[in-house]
Known about the structure:
2 domains, about 30% strand, disordered N terminus, alpha+beta, 5-stranded mixed β-sheet, about 200 residues, D-Maltodextrin-Binding Protein, domain 2
Amino acid sequence: xxxxxxxxxxxxxxxxxxxxYNAKAFEIKSDKSLVTRTDLNVENNEPLIGVISFxxxxxxxxxxxxxxxxxxxxxxTPIKISIASNNERKLKDSVISASGIHSTTFDRREGMKxxxxxxxxxxxxxTVFINDCYQxxxxxxxxxxxxxxxxxxxxxxxxxxxxxxxxxxxCANLQGSREKLLHGGSLxxxxxxxxxxxxxxxxx
Length: 204
């Protein structure tokens, strides 16, 4: 993985690039980068513009504050994406994704806290494991109901925040804070505040 953070001339703004190449978790050999996340503008620790490219899928997701979230497949016309605002699906009826078992009750070796992922597995309608940021994109497209990452760096989160918020996805870190997510150390995205609250209660 190549992580590059470029500090712009102005102290309040920065550019963040996270280029993700053939991680072991994917077990794929390819000459294409699987994921490239670029946050073009971070002002006062608040990401304003995010671009997430999946070259292997020929898909690009992008968003800017107040302008919505869009997906473009190949050379096709971009499509604006948003989730239903009246979704109040309960955890027991939801499909939840996690990026792995690290920093959970299944594997306590990493992180400062072991989140109770077993509660999610036993309660949710289905629990799946989807690596890296694609799980959060799937929430924004309505493919799954929520996704969680127990350990994340700012360059992992930066491009996701504008895309999730502009598509109507609710975001927080695993302590429940919705502020200063860039340095929150973790990320949970959900299709509704109701589901997010239920997940946070189960995890903590």
